[in-house]
Amino acid sequence: MNVRRRHISGIAVAAATALGLGALSACSSDSAAAGNTDKFDVVASFYPMQFLAEQIGGEHVNVTTLTKPGQEPHDLELSTKQTAALGEADAVLYLKSLQPAVDEAVSQSGVKTKIDAASLTTLEDHGDVEHSHGGEDAHAGEEHAEEHSEEEEHARDPHLWLDPVKYSEVAEGVAEAFEKADPDHAADYRKNADALVAKLGDLDKAFADGLKNTDTKVFFTNHAAFGYLAERYGLTQEAISGLDPESEPSPARIKELQTEAKADGVTTVFYETLVSDKTAKTLAEDAGLKTDVLDPLEGITDKSEGDDYIQVMEANLQALRTALGAK
Asked: In this structure, which of 6, 156, 240, 270 has its CB flanked by the most CB atoms within 10 Å?
């Protein structure tokens, strides 16, 4: 997977609010059975999906997750037990293209309600793959259209949950799916979803206001997880690796980043909790930069800067403000 040279930043959303965002408690029930309880049984593929299911479902759902805390979700392999449990659930909430093993298990399962978060918002391409999608061959026939469409899908950036606005769109879609699948509790699902969407709206305003006036708009990350966040708030993400956190950067890429750090006033190289920080720290040392954590929120562990999505995103905002020289 090749690395994208530069992420084109979007236009910052102008909004102002105080940071007082209340954290939502997440009652994980990882150890509970995935199916056959007296509640609406939901299997979530990994933490961002688990958080949505718990917050929207509230007391009416039993949520289990396929990706355990501290486990890197991109490389997830499912056990026979997990696959069997998935088939017994009332609903599965996942993000197609992020975890191939989950995609395959979901497609083969008999779960009645399959909720693909990627279908509830618009995905974009923030990282180059080995085959470019920059243009079509003029003489390409219709027989190649389906193949090209499939490649396009695999090139999409799945990290939508790091943009509170897109995450809110997904939350709305999840609520609708829950309401349809479990109509007896539809009113509560709607109420819970409205409360979550309001909190995500506050988070969006906090980011927009907090990152509006900064010394630089460029930040370096370990892998290209923050494309949506960067686009939303007028920033430019430069990733050491591509969309795949395990891909190794070339020496030329490292040298390029060192040069750019000086040109753009970059102060910090961000790394993350679930992936090795070796490359990020080496780059920082060679370029005379600081290091800090910018959490892609693919899982909550005891190393996380908070107990749930809202708290960790607030910590991410503070880290970005410091690194970018916020006024």
From this structure: 270
Local structure of 24: helix, strand or coil:
coil
Indicate the residue type of 41: D
pTM for this entry:
0.80
How far is the C-alpha of 147 from the C-alpha of 133, rounded, in Å? Answer: 12
Distances, alpha carbon 226 to alpha carbons 26, 188, 189, in Å: 23, 32, 29
Residue 87 confidence (pLDDT) above 50: yes
Residue 248: predicted pLDDT: 73
Helix (H) / strand (E) element for 103: namely: helix 100-108
**DSSP character for 271?**
E
Identity of residue 326:
A
Rounded-to-integer distance, Cα 96 and Cα 103, Å = 6
DSSP one-letter string for 40-52? EEEEESSHHHHHH
pLDDT(129) > 50: no
* Whether the predicted pLDDT of 8 surpasses 70: no
Contacts of residue 285, Cβ cutoff 8 Å, sequence gap at least 6: none
Q: CA 199, 320, 118: angle at the middle one, nearest 5?
A: 50
Which residues are bridge partners to 211 per DSSP?
none
Q: Tell me the three state secondary structure of residue 176.
A: helix
Whether 76 and 67 have beta carbons less than 8 Å apart is answered as yes
Instruction: Using pLDDT thresholds of 50, 70 and 90, give the confidence band for residue 222.
Output: confident
Task: Give the contacts of 37 (CB within 8 A, at least 6 positions apart).
Answer: 62
**Coil vs helix vs strand at 125:** coil
Strands (E), 110-244: 113-116, 218-221, 236-239
Distance CA 57, CA 43 (A): 12
- Check residue 63 and report its DSSP letter: E
d(CA 127, CA 225): 9
Amino acid in position 30: D
- Euclidean distance between CA atoms 192 and 94, whole angstroms: 20
pLDDT at 36: 63
